[in-house]
Amino acid sequence: MNKSLLYVLAAVGVLTSCAESYSVQGSSSIASLDGSKLYLKAVKSGELKNIDSCDVVHGQFRFSGLLDTVRMTTLFMDDEGIMPVVLEKGEISIRIDNTSRRVTGTPLNEELYDFLNRHDQLDNEMSELTHRHSQMLLEGEDEDAINQVLSLEAARIAQQEDSLVTHFIIDNFDNVLGPGVFMMMTGSYPYPVLTPQIEDIMSKATAKFKNDPYVKEYYQTANEIQARENGLVDDDTMPPPQTQQAPLTQSPLVQNDSTINKE
Question: What's the pTM value of the predicted model, to 2 decimals?
Answer without folding.
Answer: 0.81
